[in-house]
From TrEMBL:
InterPro entries: NA-bd_OB-fold (IPR012340), S1_domain (IPR003029). It comes from the Bacteria. It comes from Moorella thermoacetica (strain ATCC 39073 / JCM 9320). This is RNA binding S1. Residues 114-185 form the S1 motif domain. GO terms for molecular function: nucleic acid binding.
Amino acid sequence: MFPEGFKPGLSTLNILYEARNNDWSIEAIVSRVTWPDGQGAVWELIFPDIEEVRGLVPASESGLPKNVPMEALTGQTIRVKVKGIDKENNLAACSRVEVVAEAKERLLKTLVEGEKLDALVRAVLARPSRLVLDIGGGVLVVVPREKAAYNRALPLNAQYNPGSLIKAQVEKIDRQEGIIEVAPINPWEKADFRRGDFISGKVIRVYGKRHVLVEVPPGITGLAPYPLRKTINQGDQVTCKVMAFNKAKKILHLQWGDYRAAGNRKRRQMG
């Protein structure tokens, strides 16, 4: 008998049994990619609030495009369906294939060419250089560098960060073949800065003690020299001063500006 007002919840394993029996998809995190006994790659999953149970997803059930390796999603959140449960060993056999297929079917019915949408950067891959975008429900679209790069001089991993949300446009829909092609919308088209502007941004790369790459709205990157009197780390939020901006050539040069000193100078000029 439970205390008055107490509502017993499902045990952790029962949650997985409920998901399996009702064909529900559940959230999981790819905690590890391993190759057991030299065989094919397998995802090991952890489930939120179900610490003692691990999920396993073989490559054949990953739902990934052929040119996206399993390790590209390490540490990322995905949705899977539970296909089997090993109660003794606290293991759950899972699949992402149906989740992706259902989402792709919905997208093929609703998307139209020319439509703009939000896309999540899942990975930036090399050899060949390419961008992996999640356009909804785990449906991944691989975009080659020639379509993804908005700055030819910078590597893709300096232009995009996994986990960031960008705007993309649907370029092709083939409902018969199940093909969806998208391309990122060039953020430089909406950029408008003037020399002397102060802008906030995020440090996305530090090149030793020489240069710092800063991402500023609407998603473009500018180059600043490494500051002489302070330490800068990747991920820092910073304030910079615009020294040069050229939209056509995709150039944004920044300097570490003291907006308080600038404000004092302006007030003196006005006074």
